[in-house]
Design brief:
Tetrahydropterin Synthase, Chain A; alpha+beta; 4-stranded antiparallel sheet; 159 residues
């Protein structure tokens, strides 16, 4: 019985000493080290502040909708291939989350709008009118912000 009691005493003393080492080490690292070990400050690298400011002013490009292939209403359907993108500000977390949640809705809007035209109608309408109408429809479902401009990185009408 005496041996078990001595083992427990040794284990308790060991745990107390280990706890003290952690506490003293943390205090020393926080208050007395200028840079914690493992944190290396980069010297001689270009200052990215101007790039960050420019990105904040221009925003980021939202490409979550992806590449879509939409069939037209022609008897022999044509295909419209388009990739829709726009800028947004990721700092606006609520609007960024809304955009991510609305990707499926954006795709459905594009498919229903583009898919309601024939090839000739789409060619006569032109890209700018299509962008304007899609922008209007996107903004109609958004509640926490608005998209300013839509861009097509790909827009092909294949007949």
């Amino acid at each position: 019985m005496r041996i078990i009691f001595d083992i427990y005493r040794i284990l308790i003393i060991f745990l107390v000493l280990l706890g003290l080492v952690f506490i003293v080490g943390t205090i020393y690292g926080v208050f007395f080290l200028p840079n914690p070990p493992g944190l290396v400050q980069a010297e001689g690298l270009p200052n990215n502040t101007q790039n960050n400011v420019q990105n904040n002013l221009l925003g980021q490009t939202f490409t979550g909708i992806g590449l879509l292939r939409v069939t037209t209403v022609d008897p022999e359907p044509g295909i419209v291939v388009l990739f829709v993108l726009f800028t947004y500000f990721p700092e606006d977390k609520a609007f960024s989350e809304e955009l991510a949640l609305r990707v499926k809705d954006f795709r459905e809007i594009i498919v229903s709008y583009i898919g309601s035209f024939s090839l000739i109608d789409l060619q006569n309408q032109g890209e700018e009118i299509i962008k304007t109408e899609l922008l209007h429809r996107f903004n109609a479902i958004l509640r926490l912000g608005q998209i300013e401009t839509l861009y097509f990185s790909d827009f092909m009408i294949v007949g």
